[in-house]
Structure formats: C-alpha cells, structure tokens
Design brief:
The protein is of the alpha/beta class. It contains nine helices and seven strands. About 45% of the residues lie in helices and about 15% in strands.
Length: about 260
C-alpha cells in the first residue's frame, strides 16, 4: 500500500494489534500518532518507528483527551486522513458475577471510546472536505455469543452496528467507515485470559490453548502482523468502494 503523505491516529497503539497496525501504516508511508493511555509505552513505540511517528497520552473514554489527540496529529503532521479506533479491553466474567462497574468499564472503553474517536475524526475529515477513513475494532465475538464474555460480546456487536450506521451517514462526505473482526490474535491481552478462563472451566492453560487452536481451520494462532496488512488495505485507495463492512481476520474461524 502507498500511504505517502497520509496521517493516521491509532488508539491503543502501544501494544498488540494496535502496535502492529501502527507499524504497518508507517512502513506503508503514513505518519502515525501513537495514541495510548500508557504514555511511556507510546513514547517507546514512537521512538522505535522514527520521525513519522509521534506519541500521545490518550484516554479514549474522555472526550477532551480524544479531541486533543486529533489536534496533536494535525499539529505534528499537518492533517488527518485515517482514524483507527483500536483501543479495547476484555474480561472473563460469568454474567452472575459481572457487576455494574465491570459492565460500565467495558462499554466506556470499547463503545464510548470508539464513538468519541469516530465523532472527533469525522468533524476533522468533514472540515478538510477531501474524504478519509475511519476503522473500528470489532471482533468475531460481536457476531457470535461467547459464554463468560457477554459484556464484551455486546460491545463488539455495538462496534459492527455503529460502523454500518456511520458508513451511511458519512458517505456523502467521502469518508469510508469499516471495521475489522480479529479472531485469536496473540497479544499481551491473552496473557490475562488464559488462566482465568481455564480455571473457570476446570482445565489447564495448555488444554485451553489446544481447545481454542482446534477451532481455527488455518491451524495456527494469528499475530498482529496478520491483521495489520488488511487494515492498511482498508485505508488505501484500492478499497475506495468498501464501506460499512466488518472484515473477519481469523484464519477461517468464523465465516460470517
């Protein structure tokens, strides 16, 4: 992909899929604001990516913080072309043990954060009046229920629905809105999942890893580098006729 001259913001870009997306966009020519609540890690990633990357401490649940990220990208690189609302959280929790604070935190990061990012980016892109791209983080869990993840699944269903609505609303402004739905992509987030999930179902961590692996037709777990090229393509002119879609990147695990 050729993103020379384009400017992107990636939230949650200090690790995992977000970092992989940021790395790929820089590799393909874009300048990228590494927006993450972990400022020190954002600085580390930006330094590793060089002069076309800059760090920004961003709390995606706070509207002023998100708007400040937009302004920082424009101040640093001159404009905005791509907004990737990648930041998210996940928690293993049976519904009878999920309290209101857990529920609210999940929706604050995964849904309000996406809404605020899309809203702030749309304002800027409409002002610039030459189109742009918004990408949202969904999940296969937004299309298919998963036990002990009801609040997470609900947030990702919201991501898919909001992506469709925004695509219709922003099409007259030539702003495309799509989402990606990753499957089992090995990131630091999974380190927080294996053990609690295994203990809940009475299996060892190794057994759970083998169990999940058996659901992937491609025969291996994914890596951030498996997701990032698809995102770069969605941001490119080659995907100019693609909007309102949620693209599964999951080794064939879910086919809808």
């Amino acid at each position: 992909m050729n993103h020379d001259g384009k400017v992107a913001i990636v939230t949650g870009a200090a690790s995992g899929i977000g970092r992989g997306i940021a790395e790929r966009l820089v590799e393909d020519g874009a300048s990228v604001l590494i927006a993450d609540i972990d400022e020190s890690s954002a600085i580390e990633v930006a330094n590793a990516l060089g002069e076309r990357a800059g760090p920004f401490a961003c709390d995606v649940t706070d509207e002023e913080s998100v708007e400040a990220a937009i302004e920082a990208a424009v101040a640093s690189f001159g404009r905005l072309d791509i907004m990737v609302n990648n930041a998210g959280v996940l928690q293993i929790s049976p519904v009878v043990e999920t309290d209101v604070d857990d529920w609210d935190r999940m929706f604050a990061v995964n849904v309000r954060g996406m809404f605020l990012g899309a809203k702030a980016a749309a304002k800027r892109l409409i002002e610039q009046d030459d189109g742009g791209v918004i990408i949202n983080a969904a999940s296969g869990a937004g299309r298919h229920g998963v036990g002990m993840l009801s609040h997470y699944c609900a947030t990702k269903a919201c991501a898919i629905s909001m992506t469709q609505s925004l695509a219709l609303e922003l099409a007259p402004h030539r702003v495309r809105v799509n989402a990606y739905a990753p499957g089992h992509i090995m990131t630091p987030m999974w380190d927080e999942i294996w053990e609690p999930y295994a203990s809940r179902v009475g299996k060892s961590v190794d057994e759970i890893r083998e169990l999940f692996l058996g659901t992937i037709p491609w025969g291996r777990y994914g890596e951030p580098a498996d997701v990032a090229p698809g995102i770069s393509w969605l941001c490119s002119e080659d995907a100019e006729y693609v909007t309102g879609q949620t693209i599964g990147i999951n080794g064939g695990e879910w086919l809808h």
